[in-house]
Amino acid sequence: MRIQDLAQPAPVTVDRDTPVVDAALRMRRFHVGDVVVTEADGARKRPVGILTDRDIAIGIVGPAADVVGGLTCGDVLSTHELVTIDEDADLEEAVELIRAHGVRRLPVTDGNGRLLGIVTLDDLMQHYIGQLGKLADVVARQRAKETRERP
Asked: Cβ atoms within 10 A of the Cβ of 27, count?
């Protein structure tokens, strides 16, 4: 498979001189966590950077405490129902919850609903990638074994 077959064909973009607030509004409107910052290159656009929701939160909102200081977490908290996972659930259940609910993070709770930790999409991907790497090692080991046993 070529990367262009997997790539999103129309990423959300902004120009370099787009106000950050407008970029944030575009992220919200299109339900994305980043915008590709571009500049004109003839009839096409050339990417010059990526602005993420994290850039805005840490680079702008964090230092602007005096401007946003009156807001509470409850004021800006997403209104959808929180999806959690029980500490005894298996990884497949976590994958299914993330997929079904379209979330990237699952707080892990005990039987009484108390917070014990968090599992993220990135955590699951790293785990499964590690497992796939171990399976790929089987192929190399099998070849080496066969070469030793059947020269």
From this structure: 19
Adjacent-strand bridge partners of 51: 35
Read off the amino acid at residue 3: I
Strand-pairing partners, residue 46, are 39
Domains by residue range for the chain, with CATH = 1-70 (3.10.580.10), 78-151 (3.10.580.10)
114-127 burial, b for 16+ CB within 10 Å, e for fewer?
A: eeeeebeeeebeee
Question: What does the block give as tokens for 144?
Answer: 């080496």
Reading the chain (151 residues) residue by residue, the pLDDT tens digits are 786 886 778 899 999 999 999 999 999 999 999 999 998 888 888 888 999 998 888 888 777 777 777 777 777 776 668 899 999 999 999 999 999 998 888 999 999 989 898 998 989 999 999 999 998 888 888 888 888 888 7
